[in-house]
């Protein structure tokens, strides 16, 4: 008898809770997002603010101990020639990778949006997503072997009797080196390959939203294909390009593994953060370096939002 009463009371409580949630959809949404929002606030934002706080401290040059006093001295160290060179180099690499990814991705995305149908659409998605299913390190080390002096790319140049062209290119300052695997160009190529899918998919999604009739109308009004592209297609697809650039730009800014494996000894921001917080033990300077990509991406995201890029994500 008592068990039946308890079951009735329990069912009554559950019914009242269900009715309350049904009448208050906002409360239901709040309860659903509260756990992940709490996790995000404590783990991500909490660590982010801790990082920001560390950047306002300094390190004693003699003892190597952190001085827990508010100062902008650490940020001033970012503008020393060696450190500022790291920031500029990383920014230029991220910009170059983003621009190249947009140029390479646009025709691929356009074909998929306009002409790929049925099984060809499935093959397109498979071809774009397949590299993402393999190990990140496997891809990077594979490219290191491809770009090495004994690699397949060097063999191809020798087979075509174009070794002189490759050697001439590698002799160029900054972008050249002993081989492609230890050059700025090699780092650029690996970045471009690894992040390319993150540019193709947003552009393809944006292009699918462009009605084909708009391009036809542009042609009917006397516009050349180039004019239709510049004045009709590109502006309408621009949110997708910016959405893809958010991924490629931010991922390149923060990556430290690719420059560690493929490229010269010139550091990028990710490598500087890793070195200063690890072997050097200069956590305030590492934190200040880590703030740089956050500030750059904050500005970039603000611009992207004004361009409507988040509508194409």
Would you spell out the secondary-structure blueprint of this structure?
Elements: H1 2-23, H2 25-54, E1 58-59, E2 66-67, H3 73-77, H4 81-114, H5 119-133, H6 136-147, H7 152-159, H8 163-170, H9 184-195, H10 197-208, H11 212-220, H12 225-254, H13 257-261, H14 269-277, H15 283-306
Antiparallel strand pairs: 1-2
Helix pairs in contact: 2-15, 4-9, 4-10, 4-12, 10-12, 11-12, 12-15, 14-15
What does this structure look like?
The protein is mostly helical and 313 residues long. It has helices spanning 2-23, 25-54, 73-77, 81-114, 119-133, 136-147, 152-159, 163-170, 184-195, 197-208, 212-220, 225-254, 257-261, 269-277, 283-306, and strands at 58-59, 66-67. Strands 1-2 form a two-stranded antiparallel sheet. A hairpin with a 6-residue loop joins strand 1 (58-59) and strand 2. Helix 4 (81-114) packs across helix 10 (197-208) and helix 10 (197-208) runs antiparallel to helix 12. The protein is globular and about 85 Å long. The relative contact order is 0.11.
What descriptive keywords fit this protein?
mainly alpha, two-stranded antiparallel ribbon, 15 helices, 75% helix, 1% strand
Beta-strand content: under 5%
How many helices in DSSP terms? 15
In whole angstroms, how far apart are the ends? 58 Å
How many strands appear in the DSSP assignment?
A: 2
Helices and strands: which structural class?
Answer: mainly alpha
Shape designation: globular
Q: Give the % helix.
A: over 70%
What number is the mean pLDDT?
Answer: 83
Parts with pLDDT < 50 across at least 5 consecutive residues: none
């Amino acid at each position: 008898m008592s068990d039946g009463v308890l079951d009735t009371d329990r069912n009554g409580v559950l019914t009242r809770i269900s009715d309350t949630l049904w009448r208050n959809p906002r409360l239901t949404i709040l309860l659903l997002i509260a756990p992940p929002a709490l996790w995000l606030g404590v783990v991500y934002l909490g660590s982010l603010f801790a990082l920001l706080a560390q950047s306002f401290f300094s390190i004693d040059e003699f003892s190597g101990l952190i001085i827990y006093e508010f100062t902008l001295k650490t940020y001033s160290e970012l503008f020393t020639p060696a450190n500022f060179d790291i920031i500029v180099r990383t920014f230029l690499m991220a910009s170059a990778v983003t621009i190249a990814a947009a140029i390479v991705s646009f025709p691929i995305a356009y074909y998929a949006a306009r002409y790929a149908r049925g099984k060809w659409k499935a093959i397109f998605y498979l071809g774009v997503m397949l590299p993402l299913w393999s190990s990140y390190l496997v891809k990077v080390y594979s490219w290191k072997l491809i770009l090495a002096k004994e690699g397949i790319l060097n063999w191809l140049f020798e087979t075509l009797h174009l070794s002189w062209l490759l050697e001439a290119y590698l002799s160029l300052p900054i972008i050249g080196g002993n081989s492609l695997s230890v050059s700025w160009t090699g780092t650029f190529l690996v970045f471009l390959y690894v992040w390319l899918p993150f540019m193709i998919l947003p552009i393809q999604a944006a292009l699918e939203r462009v009605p084909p009739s708009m391009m036809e109308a542009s042609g009917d009004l006397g516009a050349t294909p180039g004019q239709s592209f510049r004045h009709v297609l590109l502006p309408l697809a621009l949110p997708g390009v910016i959405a893809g650039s958010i991924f490629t730009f931010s991922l390149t800014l923060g990556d430290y593994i690719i420059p560690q494996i493929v490229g010269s000894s010139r550091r990028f921001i990710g490598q500087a953060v890793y070195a200063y917080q690890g072997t050097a033990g200069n956590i305030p300077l590492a934190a200040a370096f880590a703030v740089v990509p956050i500030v750059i991406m904050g500005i970039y995201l603000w611009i992207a939002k004004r361009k409507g890029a988040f509508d194409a994500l």
